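Consortium newsletter contribution from the modelling node. Members have asked for a concrete example of what our holo predictions look like. Here is one, prepared for the zinc ion complex that several groups have been discussing at recent meetings.
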Amino acid sequence: MTQRRRGRPSLSQNTSRLQGGDMDMEEDVSFTQTLTQAQRNLEKHSPEQISLKVGELVQYLLIRDQKKLPIKRADIVKNVVKEYKDIYAELLLRAKKALLEVFGFQLEEIDTKAHIYILINTLERGEGDDLKVNDNTAKLGLLTVILSLIFMKGNTAKEVAIWETLRRLRVDPGERHEDFGDVKKLVTDEFVKQKYLEYNKVPHTDPPEYEFRWGPRAIKETSKLKILEFVSKIQQKDPKSWVTQYRDAQEIPRSQAPRASTSARS
Amino acid sequence: MAISESHQRFLQILMSHGIMEASAVRKLHKHCCEVHKVHYMHDKLDDFVDVINKHLQPLFMQIRKGTDENDGRRYYSLVNIAENEVTKMAMDYAENELELFRKAMDLIIDSDNGFASSTNILNLADQLQSKKMKKKEVEQLLQNFVQDKWLIERDGEYSLHTRCLMEMEHYIQSTYQDMVKTCNICHNVAIQGQVCDNCGIKIHLTCVEKYFKGHEEPRCPQCAEGWSQEIPRLSQTDSPVPSTSQKETRAGQRKAISVAASTRSRRS
Ligand SMILES: [Zn+2]
Ligand SMILES: [Zn+2]
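And here is the predicted structure:
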């Protein structure tokens, strides 16, 4: 057990964070080094030291993912990689391989500018996987409903429309819910931080109106087709009866292509 | 043998639980084999886990079996076997919270029976060097430690959760060394247990129960003095319960129930 600070503001921390920010820019040099440089750097550390670091990195990513929060490269460097920064790319590559081969998790960079990673489960959710009944299961159910609403409304849904539907399902954003707690906070804050949803102000609205879209984690973890199947199961209708949505769901997602800015609609 | 999706699912689910009781792990083994249509052999759980462990070894992790000191049940948990700084706990708590945990651990390990009273732990609040805490905050923190399966609570006293013992065995042994006693019967680390009034050896409650079973006048296995502590009778759901269990004391039953409750999973 060691002492490690959580992200709590204090004076001394603020300065180190500032330095961290500066460092991040220099870092890009070491992240894009040439092959020979990388090899030379690798030789500076013993193979044992390197595998220890890889193990540490894998555990760090796994623990962070348990909370479904995105992982920043700056935090990986600060908390785990530390003086092994010169071989960061190699460490990450090996950790990525181990996560996929041993744990069945795909490490994905969902924001190539800010260098933010998430783990995507490569295994389909199986029925009966939830031997543990916890609040997450219920929350994921709510999330699926919201993702469905957004998709069925053409990939964007006004906040008011979402609340209205949820109210009809007896989930009132203004009241404390037994399973979800503060519903509004869960949807507009927790799901957004976890990158399941995007929540943005509609341009040129006064008083401001907000709308929801799928976040990058939702795009990676599920698909429009799966969501459409979910909706058709509930409504007991053929998915093809929703012509536009069905066509949209058939399109191969440009998952690796840089995502267009949120204001551009398809 | 190569790792398959059934192994991966097993590992993922075990990890999300933190710690799982053996009977639940057996069900999980069956579930994972069925989902991936792998031939399920109920007596091959150890082999199944060994395959995973072989792949975890280069990453300094391991699925380990541990025994609950209180009820003797077997548990499985994924633990870190490297002496590095990444621990699940260090990432979830602030520095002063970790300091409080270490100080509470000192009290627990220093005690005879492996428990520290909440009063004594609350008194640590203003001894913290990193950042002082209010008593109210410590109370909340203790609840979090219990929910996150680092501590167990029983009648206002705290001890280490089995998961904590499994995860931090190395840390505990290197930090406390001779202070940590080993059980005179099973020779594993003993935090919760009974101590001989005469010679000071420690025995797990479950080991006391087994060792003294049927003894009219129990004597210390080390110094042969009379064993002055009350011999616990814990009901075990895992093993067939002998017919004499009808005569179990109420206190014994209560104890077993509260232990089961305290080892149950996170936030309901
Ligand atoms: Zn023992
Ligand atoms: Zn003795």
